[in-house]
Amino acid sequence: MSETVEKSKTAKETKILVIACERSVNLEKDLDGRKLKGVENALVVQVPCSGMIQPRMIEAAFKDGADGVIAMGCQIGDCHFREGNKFCRERLLGLRPPVIKKSVPKNRLKGLWMSEVQVDTFKKRVEEFKEHVANELAQGR
Amino acid sequence: MFTTLVRTGQKVILRIEDLLNKIFTAEENILYYHGALPNFFMWILFLSGLLLFVYYIPTLEGAYQSVEYITRKVPYGDMVRGIHRYAADAMLLTVLLHAMRVYFTDRYREYRIIAWYSGIALSVMMSIIGISGYILVWDERSYQIVLKMSEFLAAVPFIGQSMSHAFINDDVISNYTMSMAFFLHTGISFSLLVMLWVHYMRISRPVVNVTWSIGCLLGGLILIISGILPATSGPEANFTVEPKYFDMDWFYLWIFPVMKILGNGWTWLLVIAGITFSVLLPNFVKSRDHEAAEVNKDKCVGCKLCSIDCPYEAIYMSPRNDGSRFKEIAVVIDDRCAECGLCVGACNFDAIELPFYTSPTVMDDVRIALQNA
């Protein structure tokens, strides 16, 4: 037990990768390269639509050292390309092919659906997710 | 400045939607069904119109009496009439909402251009249906509409007289005028369905229905309004009496006060300028450089997933006979492609990619970002 606690990270140290739709939360002023300003160890890669996020991208992110991955699209019901965020959500839930491999730790994977104007809420959610990921890691999951 | 205006409009809409999401949840958010709302009211109009049609008589002698009969004698007839009127207003209102929503969120041009143009046609058709519907009642307002409309049509050079004659359907107002108005009202109503088919072209799985709860809410609202403010007729039209009654419906009859103020010529110019402006609107914004999704022949296994997921019907499956062991290959229709990448998300074989941001590049970006953190 003590070993796992030593190995685990604090919420601050957990590395979060956000694969985000470029039309959802407007991060123009909140990105320093790929780093999210105001939140430590949070990185953002933007794609044209959350519907473009392949399960393989999520797998790659975990393989490359992310502790948690967030797939972010616009609010469900409002996708610029009509159905991208719905498809993304269905893939995260394993309801739409291609599905995510079982080896991916789904407890550290999150779907987030926010509109352009919700920058502050987005940061709050990332912070909450970091804590969640730290908890999960502490329990060895 | 123009761009700022559009951006601000979009932000306002998104904030309102966010608020509604908190109250109603995203599944029941009325603004996410902005395209389905006019459709909902259209079906109400077809249904209530059918009920009115059972008793309506489209002649000069019969029209007013039959409408009065519907209002006074037929059980709930006044209610059905009220529903028909207020659903029509609601339809135009939601059409305006729909148009504004797609305009401010930039969803009306490039790969959506057919929907924009057919939408303009649908709006014009709706206006004609609305105006001709007010003739059918044949009260003093109807009489004035026929008089002013025939003058308005006659004001067009060269073909105006013939247009006016076709509208009155005789040299003087007669039963034929009523049958013409009746045809314009019902005939164009059914043509809406044809134009709607065009409107849905290139849209896979269009959202055409509202949810049950939204439907019940709005249907109930129409019912309550038609109960409180029943639609009524003015005095019956009489050729020997100067018509005075003109109860205003600002959604469909706005053109008549405009005619009174500007005169026929300027009103025509205004209408033509309005339609031309709407048609040209998509050209005011510069299009992006177009780079459609590309299929990798060697990797495509013909699984159809991208063609199913494409939201704009830009991908179809074509039989292949190039010696591959797979029977079909995905083909992208370049000018329909919106460059959204939904096909990339659907492909597990890296067989379809956006040239400007391929999935290996995304994965590289992910790796580099994580390494540098």
Write the layout of secondary structure elements.
The complex is a heterodimer of chains A (141) and B (373).
Chain A: H1 2-7, E1 16-21, E2 31-32, E3 35-36, E4 42-47, H2 55-63, E5 68-73, H3 84-92, E6 109-113, H4 119-138
Parallel strand pairs in A: 1-4, 1-5, 5-6
Antiparallel strand pairs in A: 2-3
Chain B: H1 2-24, H2 36-55, H3 62-72, H4 77-104, H5 113-136, H6 140-154, H7 160-168, H8 175-199, H9 212-228, H10 255-262, H11 264-280, E1 294-295, H12 305-309, E2 315-319, E3 328-332, H13 342-346, E4 352-353, H14 359-372
Antiparallel strand pairs in B: 1-4, 2-3
Helix pairs in contact in B: 2-4, 3-4, 4-5, 4-9, 5-6, 5-8, 6-7, 10-11
Would you summarize the structure shown here?
By secondary structure, chain A is an alpha/beta fold.
Q: Could you give a short account of the major beta sheet of chain A? A: 4 strands, parallel
- Helix percent band of chain B: 55-70%
What is the first-to-last residue Cα distance of chain A?
13 Å
Distance between the termini of chain B: 39 Å
Average of pLDDT of chain B: 93
Largest sheet of chain B: 2 strands, antiparallel
Which strand order do you get reading across the main beta sheet of chain A? 4-1-5-6
- What Rg of chain B, in angstroms, do the CA atoms define? 26 Å
Amount of helix of chain A:
25-40%
Tally of DSSP β-strands of chain A = 6
